[in-house]
Structure formats: C-alpha cells, structure tokens
Design brief:
alpha+beta; 44% helix; 414 residues; 5-stranded mixed β-sheet; 3-stranded antiparallel β-sheet; Cytochrome p450; Cyt_P450_CS
C-alpha cells in the first residue's frame, strides 16, 4: 500500500510540485485489505513514517491528509481549501453541482440557512415519536425469528423510511434513489472518465425524478421538507427551480446513504462485544454518550476539497486546482486527539472526532443522524437485549466517499 509503483508513476510523470517521497500507491475507492475492515485498512496510513499529507496517482492523482490536525485544518479553511469540487476523481467531481456543499462562504450561507431550518433540533423533536415507531415496527417484525440480516432488514430500511416520510415521497421509489446515491458516492468505472459518466448519469437521474415533484409542490402550503425548501427565499427572493433541484438532490444523497452504512458498522461491533451491549442494557441513559463514542470510532466519510490558490502546506507546495481527500477516519482514530482510540469506551469523557465534518460545511443532518442512532440502540436493546454476530458472518466492506458494509447476520436466543 505504501510503496511507489513505477508502473503508475514513471520517471517524469509526477506533477512538478509533488516530491517523490510523498507518493504512495493508494486507491481509496478500491482500498487494499478492506476486507479486514474499513477503518483498519485506512489506518495503515497513519504511521509515524508516513507524512501528514501524501499524494496518490490513482483516480486522476490527488493528495490525502492522514492526521487529525490536517483533517481539521482543511475542513475549517475554505480559503485555500475550496468546496467547489468535493468528489473524486476531479473529472467526476466537476459534474457534481449540488448546493450548498459545492459553495464556499459567504455564498453558501443563505442556502445553508434554508437547510438548517428544516433539520434543526426543534424539527427533530417534532418527528421523534414517528421515527421511534418506525424503528419499533422494523425490529418487532423479526425479533421473534431469532435472527436477521441487519443490513437488509433494518439498516437499509430504517433511515430510508424516516427520510422518505420527511420528504413525502413513496417508499417504493427508494431503491432507485439509493442507486443514484451509490453511484455518486462510489461511482462505477475503472478510469476517471468512466467514473464521471456514472456520476453524471446518477445526478441526471435525481434531477429527472425530482423535476415534476418540485413543480407540483411549488406555491403550495405542504409541510414536508421538499415543500418547505422549494417555497423558501434566498436573500429575499424566491428560490429558483434549478437551485431547489440542487439542494433537494443533495439532501436525498445524504439522507439515503450515510446513516444506512454507519448503523451496520455499529452492529458488527456490538454483535462481537456483548459487554458493551450489557452496559447499554443496564443503563439506557448512557445511550446518547455511547452513540457519540461509536461515531468517533467508526467514521466512514472521505470527501475532498480543491486547492483554490497556490499555497505551502505541511512541507509541500499545493497548486491551484489540486485535489485533497479528507478521510474523517484520520481524526477520530488519531491518538493525538483521543487516548487509546481503537478502544470503544462508553465512559470516555469527551470523544473528539470529525465524523460530521467541520467548518462551514459541517453536516446539517447531524441532529437527525444522532437521533436515528440513539433510537436504534434503545429500541433494539429493549426488544433484543442479547445478540451476537452470526458464527459464519463475513461482512463485506467497500471504500469510497462513504464506506459501506453489507452482510451483517445477527442472531439471538428466542
């Protein structure tokens, strides 16, 4: 993983601002040894001999930061680390036009305000009962069986049902929307050009799906998330149609993928660690703290930033237009930020992480995500107080902008 590959970086092929000793042959979309665990494979790059910023020739060539401090600095500083392109490879990322994620301050502020208004803590409290009932219904459907495939029977159902209700879209449409989301976050293809085609096709799929829905809800008094956004104002003016498409497609992308993946990572851990389950069973009041510790331990997002101007950073020269990938795993599992970071400690006083990002683009959906995680833990343990990962389980991990894991069989005594 950490050796220079002459076949990929022949003599003279490197950009002139990339020192040879910063080149590592790493493909974070097809990560070596990911079958042993996503976080475990990623953290092979956080070693004393590996610099805090390295360069890979894969996926069009880009930088990668490998330390908590660098993750935070890049995410917190839109100048020089712009969100104009946040998806790799760059050739694909230039097709990604969702807002406000691709806007820098101050332009993004008005759009972010609209999103905050529909995802703030008060709004989450208003839907908490219905979210809880969704979780209960799913768990009770298989609790008496003594087993389930957690990924397909819960993780791919619960956050999706919650979000589809929030936007008032038919649940039957979720599979195609989830397919679009997957092709944006983990685009198919072996070259940047092929990945760009996959991503552009998925974005068009979102827009074609949403266009008639937005037209139908504009000017009406619906209380769903789409209606509230499409009828919002930006700087005192009605939101234009293309901007509403961008924002709502962005929300669908986030709402239908990330928590789905994260929950499966959590249940693999709990299924292997009955003592941690017992702690939550004995004291359910610690569930919110436990959820935060699990967020720290299992980060799965690795989006990117584009260098807005030539700048010196961590001993290298970054050129305008360079791309930098920012894996959040290098924050929560960095021992400079958290003592004994591999250990899940529900009594950790202050779990520090950037699992929801940082800076102006810190995840607007974090209140919803925290609520979904806490509700899942509480309602699951109330109904299935002891469980284990299946004896023949072989979780299937995949890396990308958002890592995933599938095939999570859980068992319990009935």
């Amino acid at each position: 993983m950490n050796s220079v590959n002459p076949a990929i970086t022949p003599e003279g092929a490197l950009p002139d601002n990339v020192p040879q000793d910063r080149v590592f042959d790493i493909d974070l979309f097809k990560l070596d040894q990911v079958e042993d665990g996503y976080q475990e494979a990623m953290m092979k790059l956080q070693k004393p001999e590996i610099p805090s910023i390295i360069w890979t020739p894969r996926n069009g060539g880009h930088w990668i930061v490998t330390r908590a401090q660098a993750v935070q600095e890049v995410l917190q500083n839109p100048d020089p680390f712009s969100s104009q392109v946040i998806v790799l490879p760059k050739e694909a990322g230039e097709k990604y036009d969702f807002i406000p994620t691709r806007l820098d301050p101050p332009e993004h502020k008005a759009y972010r305000k609209v999103i905050n208004n529909v995802l703030d803590p008060r709004q989450m409290r208003n839907i908490e009962d219905s979210v809880r009932q969704t979780s209960i219904d799913l768990i009770e459907a298989f609790a008496a069986k003594g087993k389930c495939d957690f990924t397909t029977e819960y993780a791919e159902q619960f956050p999706v049902r919650v979000f589809m209700a929030m936007v008032d879209l038919p649940l039957s449409d979720a599979p195609i929307l989830m397919e679009f989301a997957g092709q944006i976050l983990r685009p198919a293809g072996t070259t940047p050009a092929e990945m760009a085609v996959s991503l552009e096709r998925a974005i068009k799929g979102f827009y074609d799906y949403l266009d008639p829905i937005l037209n139908e809800r504009r000017g009406k008094d619906g209380d769903d998330m789409i209606s509230r956004i499409i009828n919002s104002e930006i700087n005192g003016e009605p939101m234009i149609h293309s901007e509403a498409l961008n924002i709502i497609a962005n929300l669908l992308l986030a709402g239908l993928d990330t928590v789905v993946s994260f929950l499966s990572f959590v249940m693999i851990f709990l299924g292997r660690n009955p003592d941690h389950v017992k702690q939550l069973r004995d004291d359910p009041s610690m569930i919110p703290r436990a959820a935060e510790e699990l967020l720290r331990r299992f980060p799965i997002v690795a989006d990117a930033r584009m260098v807005a101007r030539d700048t010196e950073y961590e001993g290298v020269t970054l050129k305008k237009g360079d791309m930098i990938q920012v894996p959040t795993v290098y924050s929560g599992l960095d021992e400079s930020l958290n003592d004994d970071p591999w250990t899940v400690d529900f009594h950790r006083r202050r779990p520090l992480h950037n699992t929801f990002g940082d800076g102006p683009h810190r995840c607007a959906g974090m209140h919803l995500a925290r609520m979904e995680i806490a509700i899942t833990l509480k309602e699951w343990i109330a109904r299935i107080p002891e469980f284990r990962l299946g004896s023949n389980a072989k979780p299937e991990y995949a890396s990308g902008m958002v890592a995933t894991v599938k095939c999570v069989p859980l068992e319990w005594d009935v």
